[in-house]
Structures are given as structure tokens and as C-alpha cells.
Amino acid sequence: MSELQLHNIFIGSLSEICKRQLLENLKKDLAGDSGIRVADLMGAATDIVKDFRPEQTIFISGDTGELRAASACSIAALGYLPDAGPEENARETEHTETAEENTGADVTMWAEGFEEIGLTFLTRVYERYHGLPWTILVTERCVVKEFSLDYLDALFALYDGEGMTEYIEPLYPYEQEREYQEAYIRHMYGFYGYGMWIVCDRDTGALIGRAGLERREELGGELELGYVIGVPYQRKGYATEVCTAILRYAEEELEQSEVCCLIEKGNEVSEHLARKLGFLLKEELTLDGKQMKKYVRN
Questions:
Q1: 219 versus 292: which is more confidently predicted?
Q2: In this structure, are residues 63 and 41 in contact, taking their beta carbons and an 8 Å threshold?
Q3: pTM
Q4: In whole angstroms, how far apart are CA 176 and each of 146, 157, 253?
Q5: In a designed cystine with 75, which of 31, 70, 82, 198 is the match (CB 3.0 to 4.6 A)?
Q6: What CATH architecture applies to the domain 135-297?
Q7: Where along the chain do its domains lie?
Q8: Which of 104, 49, 107, 103 minimizes the C-alpha distance to 77?
Q9: Measured between alpha carbons, how far is 185 from 285 in angstroms, rounded to an integer?
Q10: Pairing between strand 222-229 and 207-216?
């Protein structure tokens, strides 16, 4: 078993309301035997923290001194910002440079409330700290997750399939693609929390495609759905299955109901899928010298 796996959730200084909300959420999430320990370090029963491993731990606190101490021990940390704006429930590090400057703590993410924070969210904070790819969603046959460089060779094999780059951009040369993906993982996933993900077979773990959501600068930052499925898996319903789940994720998790997709003129298969998913043709336009059709779903 990998050492990089969450086993301990330690709670430091929080208001009673925040602590109660967090503990109630965790109690529901940990109803079964998950092997994860929860300890209130401000409470009386703290013997549970004996012999803990920092690399298996996440710490939650609103106290800057405690956060600095956790940072010094290389512990993943979720900080609490009670005076932050109401726009989001939590923000990642890149959104909080001022907060970091004020605290001096290397906090992975900052919370603005605990109403919706439970085991899934804390696990993602932990994974982000350790550079572990998030599992975004699971469908009947697939797992959609963030790309990691372990899949780089498989990605090149995927794109080598016959006709794969007829309507999508090819990959860069190998080393350039590696550098691009490293930057993408760090900036796109780290900043937005979403992007182009990989699609893997749920049973075998094999890479079968890519799919995800990105902001399209040419369209004023509109959210765009994109996908590509490997040749051996085409015409088997994988694109429909995965894209349907991603659109649901966009609406329920990202609170983004309006999504567009750009399809190069002549790509009738993708147009058929777009209509099947509930997209409607809005306009035709030219991007980078290519004739494109813009479909919108809201």
C-alpha cells in the first residue's frame, strides 16, 4: 500500500460552529470502517495522534501559528478564512497569495465555511498537496481522473490511432509534450480544479481516451466540453457515457450549467453526439483558419 494515503484528519483551532459542521459531515462520511482517524486536537482525547505519520495526515485550523507548524512538519493543511468573500466555499493556493503572505503558512487550500466540506473534499486537499491526481468521477465502465505523467506513453499510443488527429490537434514531440503536461497539471488543475482529464477503463485501468472542461479564451472564457476516445473503444457508447457524467459534474459540482462545444465542420460523428447530449447549434465561426460549429447547452 502506498504511504501517500490519507489516514489521519486532525482538527485544530476552529469556531464551535465550524467544528460542529465539519465533524457532523465526517461522521456521515465515515459511517463505515474507512480506516481514517479523526482527532480534535483542542479536545481532551488526543492520544489518538500518537505515532502518526505526517505524510498520511491533513490538518484543519483557523490559527496561523498552528498552520505554520503543520507546514513546517510537511503536513497537508486546510486553512480557515472567516473573513473571506462569499463567492466560493473554498479556494486553492493560487487564489490566496495575500492570505499566504499574511500567515506565512504553506496552506494547500483555504476554506470559507464547512457546510459542504467532508471526506471527499479533505481527500482532494490532501491529494493536491502531495501531487496525486484527483479521481473526478466514476461511470459504469470508466474512471475519469486527472492526467499524470505515468500515462504519457499511453497518451502517445492513443493519439497514434488511425484518424485520431483528423479533427483534434496532435501532441507535441515527446519531451515538449512532457513539459507541457507538467505545466498543465501544476497550473490548470491547481488553479481551476478542472481541465482535460483522462478516461480509463474501470476494470483494467487502461487509458481509453480524454475528456474534460476548459475555458476557451477565443470565446470570452466560455466553458467548453472536449473529448477524444481511442479507436478500439469507438462506437461503443463510451463518449456518451463519459460526457453525460461530465456535464452532470459541471452542473452539480462546479455549478456551471452553460457549456459549449466547438466542432470542426465535417465532423458529423461529434455533431451527432452533441445533439444527443442536448446541445443546440448556435453559430458557425472561423478559429485558427478552421471552420467551426459552436454548439451550446444550458
A1: 292
A2: no
A3: 0.82
A4: 19, 16, 33
A5: 70
A6: 3-Layer(aba) Sandwich (3.40)
A7: 8-129, 135-297
A8: 107
A9: 30
A10: antiparallel
Block residue for cell numbers 466540506: 117
For 209-263, what is each residue's pLDDT tens digit? 999 999 988 888 899 999 999 999 999 999 999 999 999 999 999 999 899 999 9
Q: For position 44, what pLDDT does the model report?
A: 53
Q: How many CA atoms lie within 13 A of 3 on its CB side?
A: 4
* CATH code at 8-129: 3.40.50
C-alpha cell recorded at residue 102? 499574511
Q: CA–CA separation, 107 vs 98, rounded Å?
A: 12
Q: Which amino acid is present at 32?
A: G
Cell of 157: 499510443
At residue 207, what is the residue type? L
Q: Mind listing the pLDDT tens digit for each residue in 64-91?
A: 899 999 989 899 999 998 754 444 444 4
Is residue 239 classed as helix, strand or coil in its secondary structure? helix
* pLDDT tens profile 23-47: 999 999 998 767 899 999 886 555 5
Crossing angle (nearest 10°) for helices 238-252 and 268-276: 50
